[in-house]
Amino acid sequence: xxxxxxxxxxxxxxxxxxxxxxxxxxxxxxxxxxxxxxxxxxxxxxxxxxxxxxxxxxxxxxxxxxxxxxxxxxxxxxxxxxxxxxxxxxxxxxxxxxxxxxxxxxxxxxxxxxxxxxxxxxxxxxxxxxxxxxxxxxxxxxxxxxxxxxxxxxxxxxxxxxxxxxxxxxxxxxxxxxxxxxxxxxxxxxxxxxxxxxxxxxxxxxxxxxxxxxxxxxxxxxxxxxxxxxxxxxxxxxxxxxxxxxxxxxxxxxxxxxxxxxxxxxxxxxxxxxxxxxxxxxxxxxxxxxxxxxxxxxxxxxxxxxxxxxxxxxxxxxxxxxxxxxxxxxxxxxxxxxxxxxxxxxxxxxxxxxxxxxxxxxxxxxxxxxxxxxxxxxxxxxxxxxxxxxxxxxxxxxxxxxxxxxxxxxxxxxxxxxxxx
Length: 421
Hints:
Number of strands: 21
Mean pLDDT: 85
Oligomer: single chain
């Protein structure tokens, strides 16, 4: 069959297909797509005649272009086709108007048209049109629109997403949605991922999360609003949910777990590693709107007799496991908080001195029961990036960071914008 060059799906829909005598077999209702190399290819056309649909195999065509489509088969040779069959991937039914995640623009766009090209005697799917041109083409206004835009000296660009970057989001072809491959998505900022997930349906968002690696999924879920987090985690297999929870900082993990139904939370925590589950359980023991509820129990603390040099060596080993480090906290032999030193001061201090000789001892501390607004006021008043939380005996329980306070005050959308900076 002669190569047809390139065309868009909308240019052939409802167009007639001719038989060998030049009579009309029917009009194109859809095309079926199957896996091909290098790209998916057209397997057969579905044509409609007098309210009946027929299957016209690709091998039964000898001309295929936007100007003329001709078959080597007569109507008697065609088999009727059940348009409700869900096993076939149909371009118009299953792809047009479905959502696509555009990683470049970090947004959800719509498949307005599908571009086909001739390749090795096949018609292959090369791209999806997500722009205004696709809409105008489907409405039959593209040429007129071009003429008008030329008069106005306005250029309307093509907005195509190559099929190389597209794959099914769900295996069920009748409910297909589209996305870029996971390795590209994982490079997006977690806040951008959260924006994308928030724009699609719950089912598509859940499948989106399922296709991410555990670390990326944890980062994305941390950025979602509480009700979306709860829905996502509740629907997950407990083992997968536990893996994601383990990747989160303990305070964020505790926030997610606390919002789940008790039975689901218990089921997940039973599969979280013992040490991390213990950290989460400890945080769950505090009221949400207190210093204890805001704090994380991930921090770095060394004994007062540790030398600056040893502390720096140990810090290099400990820091990769901690989400944010602002200060090194200093403990006495009984484990009570006696001081702190900033990372800058640590680096500038003589390696031979002990932490007790260089630490700041005039510390502002919080009790775990302190109201969250008092916590915010203290951080603002003393211009600190973190405040330690201690129990009645002076033992260090955790720290509240300025990020925790900002997250508490700002609405979800503003939080995500801040974290992108």
